[in-house]
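To whoever is on call:

I kicked off a structure prediction for a single chain this morning and the downstream step that reads the tokens threw a length-mismatch warning. I double-checked the sequence; it's 163 residues and nothing unusual in it as far as I can see. Pasting both halves so you can look.
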Amino acid sequence: PFNDSDFYKLLEGACAVYGETHDKRLEQNIERIIGVIARAQRADGYIHTPVLVRQRNGDTNAAPFQDRNNFEMYNMGHLMTAACMHYRVTGRTNFLAVACKAADFLYATFHDAPPEAARSSVCPSHYMGIVELYRATRKPRYLELAKKFFELRDGIKDGSADN
């Protein structure tokens, strides 16, 4: 099935193509899609389609990071990477603002988290995405968050290969 990360990876690729072609129709589609993503994001920065849809349909049990196989942080990592690519090829900050908002949510959620919190992530794209976001913005909090993610991962003694 198609998921958030697939969508973000396609969007990153479209941005890379736009960077080479400057195709106006592609640019318009990219910007339209970014607008949809921005509108879907919660005010606190959280963004993950399955949880958001369940919440908006009244599911009071739908909450972030309840199932590590939801790949929420993995998906947010790909969102950040795509936003950085968009920023690099267009100079626009609209998608970067969505990524920063998501990263700020992760910072608030995991800044003081115990090592067990590492179990809520599967696959390391959020490490790469947050580092790319730091490179694009030079905001020290994002590099600090990347370091925190590694500390959390290293704090798991019986973790899986994902940690």
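Update from on-call: the warning came from a stale cache, not from the record. Cleared it. Sanity check on the structure: Helices lie at 4-21, 24-40, 49-56, 72-90, 94-110, 125-137, 140-154.
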